[in-house]
Amino acid sequence: MSIIRRPMNRRSLLKAGAASGLVLATPTIISRSAWAETNFRNDPTNSKTVTFGFNVPQTGAYADEGADELRAYQLAVKHLNGEGDGGMLSTMKPLSLNGNGVLGKKVDYVTGDTQTKSDAARASAKRMIEKDGVVMWSGGSSSGVAIAQQSLAQEMGVVFMCGLTHSNDTTGKDKRRYGFRHFFNAYMSGAALGPVLDKEMGKDRRAYHLTADYTWGWTQEESIANTTEGLGWETVNKVRTPLGAGDFSQYIAPVLNSGADVLILNHYGKDMINSLTQAVQFGLRDKLVNGKNFEIIVPLYSRLMAQGAGENIKGIYGTTNWNWSLQDEGSKAFVKSFGQEYGFPPSQAAHTCYVQTLLYADACERAGTFNPAEVIKALEDHQFDGMGNGPTLYRGSDHQCFKDVLVVKGNENATSQFDLLEVVEVTPASQVTYDPEIFGGELGPYKV
Amino acid sequence: MDAIVLQILNGLDKGGAYALIALGLTLIFGTLGVVNFAHGALFMLGAFCAVAFNKLIGLEQVVVDPTKTTAWGTPLETRVPYIEVWLGDTGTTMLNYSVPLSIAFAIPVMLLAGYVMERGLIRHFYKRPHAEQILVTFGLAIVLQEIIKTYFGANPIPQSAPDMVRGAMDLGVMLGFDPGTVVYPQWRIVYLFFSLSVIGGVFAFLQFTTFGMVVRAGMADRETVGLLGINIERRFTLVFAVAAVVAGLAGVMYTPILPPDYHMGMDFLVLSFVVVVVGGMGSLPGAVSAGFLLGILQSFASMNEVKTILPGIDQIIIYLVAVIILLVRPRGLMGRKGVMET
């Protein structure tokens, strides 16, 4: 036996390298493949129930809207589990759900409080994912909060079904593979409002924007200004106002003598209530400028918020995702279910949350698994009907729903405390559809 | 020029609210030496006195119409306020004037709230450090907020000014400007005069009554007044209650301007403290003048011409002024020597 070791030549080095590489890589290849097919975070296969998370603002300025969202989620869970009258399960098409939970598992849920703060929402969602084992979570009512949660969804590999969020960024530059939005967006509001504004106010107008200084306000201002400028309107000024300013009088006073004959309030929630109330108090609606009646526009309306503005909303134009007065079968079924359960009609926030829950559950049934990668594929480019907005497409390239948009105005002859908005026009989905490239963004991978 | 007049008016009515809240804060601090972070909550409580009063006199008779149903299948309910059923047009007028009428409801409620707060909680913290006073009063503010939210919800609840003063008036014509250039909401003008009257009333009370004289003496030298056999603590309790009433009335009359919600007190609290610091701790005239000054500056800072030169100035102007005043006059505009100084 020779004790002299031969020096390693190039061929043997390559052989040894390849062999070692194969040995080292084999377990990884096997395990990754196994994870992709059977293992995913919070896999409920061995459980009799599946848990959803509902993360809504339970405290803070949007607490009432959050409460309405929560009511809708609870109703959706009831219907999924075969309780109650089934709501939209009787009108949803196509339908794979059969009222015995999802994939044979009873649906359970946990709730969280976003406080309408991104960090609180992420912390609450993380608790739901890590501690409560949710396979999906959902909630609104702020775009900043929704975007923050979408990012978390992508990091954690758990689907997030957005509640009320209206910024273009949610399914634009900040879109994520694990985030889906049923609610419409600022671009669609502009596209839907355009023809109505043209008809009602003409082409020769001068608009003044007051805009909430955060992501949603910026995108709405941009979308509405693009629309109105497209009509031939001149934009006199765009003024950013701090979120939660309370008294907007110092921002409204300059509008009086600016030469503008239209005030566009890119505000939502409490800001909308305050700025609209104060604008009306300043006599803007009684003013005659450039020989025309001064007009106020609130591009994003919410019935809950309209209640806060009282009679000041009368005759003021805006858009909304859905209204309880719609007479299609899906809306009627939902309003009946919700009204009988709670004694009053649902808000648009409640509607979108209810629909999102059913859509997710239905996608699981169609995919035959809770594996998020497969559920996402089942939701992408899915077309459905019977859920209150006419035929709808969940576009795969940006996870945005395309459906009819309602142009509404504050009801001048309200018949009840809930009859605040009058539907002026139902703008068809084709008129509000756009190329996803205009807002950029990357969805990211299916597997994380 | 018309834009400047508008912003001055704006600043004055905004300043009116700041001054009323800051006046109460200063009164409490000057007499009791307590830094009351629950004072904003008293403003909010006052606003909800107006809401509660409106709800009380607006209690409705519900008539079920079995022939009609709602969209969700239950019988339709028609609602008419009892007060209209019982009193006819007088009832309608009372509903129309519910905000000014609620002052009569707010005064006893706020007096009681102030008395209970002072006797039940605040008095136990007179000799404790300011940090502890701040913590306990801030906690109290949160408790009051949550109570209001539980009963009234989180959404703002609109309150209307009486029809007679609901619209805007053309002040430009009176001031020699072109018609329609200086148009201002009538209720805001009412609010400005109301706040000036309340401020005047408080000063007159302190200046021209024996009670006020004793309170002023107590503010200057508590020990000597005590040695003269006067129970200054009892009087200070009443001062706390009066301060609560002033904040409450400011809140009542502000409801048609800003639909009240449970958080509105917090929005005003920080600003009011800045007003007190700028005016000078413990100085009543300082608090009032600083209230109006900061209101006007805030309005001017929001003008587009100013924001073009200094973007974002509207959001920091109040704090910027506070920093400058504290650098130049560390005791504030009218601060007294020895207050908060050891």
From TrEMBL, chain A:
Superkingdom per UniProt: Bacteria
Pfam families: Peripla_BP_6
Keywords, sorted A to Z: Amino-acid transport, Signal, Transport
Signal peptide per UniProt: 1-36
Coiled-coil residue windows: none
Leucine-binding protein domain boundaries: 49-412
PROSITE patterns: TAT
Family statement: Belongs to the leucine-binding protein family.
Protein's name in the database: Amino acid/amide ABC transporter substrate-binding protein, HAAT family (TC 3.A.1.4.-)
Organism, scientific name: Pseudovibrio ascidiaceicola
Lineage: Bacteria, Pseudomonadati, Pseudomonadota, Alphaproteobacteria, Hyphomicrobiales
TrEMBL record, chain B:
Membrane topology classification: Multi-pass membrane protein
Localization (cell): Cell membrane
Pfam family, one: BPD_transp_2
Assigned keywords, A-Z: Amino-acid transport, Cell membrane, Membrane, Transmembrane, Transmembrane helix, Transport
Highest taxon listed in the record's lineage: Bacteria
Family, per entry: Belongs to the binding-protein-dependent transport system permease family. LivHM subfamily.
Name of the protein described by the UniProt record: Amino acid/amide ABC transporter membrane protein 1, HAAT family
